[in-house]
Amino acid sequence: MLSxxxxxxxxxxxxxxxxxxxxxxxxxxxxxxxxxxxxxLISEITAKPLQQIDxxxxxxxxxxTPKVDVRGFVLNDKGQxxxxxxxxxxxxxxPGGWTDIGFSPKEVVEKEVFEETGLRVTVKRxxxxxxxxxxxxxxxxxxxxxxxxWCDAEVxxxxxxxxxxxxxxxxxxxxxxxxxxxxxxxTQLKTLYQSVKEDRADTIFD
Length: 206
Hints:
Layout: H1 4-20, H2 25-46, H3 50-56, E1 67-74, E2 81-86, E3 92-93, E4 96-98, H4 105-117, E5 122-131, E6 144-152, E7 165-171, H5 186-197, E8 204-205
Parallel strand pairs: 1-6, 5-8
Antiparallel strand pairs: 1-4, 2-3, 2-7, 5-6
Helix pairs in contact: 1-2
């Protein structure tokens, strides 16, 4: 069953679809009003400024689809997890971010890991594809799919944080720092770790 925020995002998608494919000016006006009301509700539930939400939801020009977030799961030779401290909330996640136009998911995650940590990695395989609404993340303004790749570093060079990252470090699974719950959950890290350690061939998905 959809949560309240997910129902609103679904209504938002229907309104934006109507804006793109409207048959007349009356229908366009009605869908635009529905979209504006959804933006206000999303702003209230997520406690984010309405203007910030509105800026993210650009005027719809085509059929609305979920955003895609890619993350790299990297272990060192001690079995520790590579993590970055996010500047937005001061908490920790595995490196990654939004996909970029012109890059494949593999290319994006390798680029993100290097930019955020200074470590050059190679993607080994896709570990998981998760829909955020299926997991107990805090309410989010957007519908997001998360793709997590297992990445391998041939050489563990000294870590070097990016300008928009507060810190970067290795952590034991049983001694994790405060997590950025919008990005990663403790249960998800344990699932990823188990998949790598057991060398499972399957991809976890919702």
